[in-house]
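Quick one: structure for this chain?
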Amino acid sequence: MFKFLKEKIKGLLKKKEKEIEVEKVEEKVEEKEKKIEEKEKKKEKSLFSFSFGKIKIDEKQFYNFFDEFKIILWQSNVACEVVDFLEEKLKQELIGKEINKKEFEGFFKAKVKRSYRKFICRPY
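Got it. Here's what it folds into:
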């Protein structure tokens, strides 16, 4: 009689242990999925990808940034033709470039000034 009860209890314990193991595995998978989602969100939130003190600008990041910059230019009453010209020139000069993080602001300002001068000095 006790032998039968012991076997039933052992069987129930084994089932519970398997369920607990499955739950642990599921929790680990969920944690890894959350970490992956957080990393993807961080990548989407960041305007530029950073690595070892350098910034490398890709096309998607450029357009995300330039859309905001374009609105600022329009609010400053810059002509659409000038904005389009700046977009083309900056796209050519910035996409794929690696720039020091500390020097990015100055680098960007210099590129905008240079592109604007090219627009002003171009023949009609």
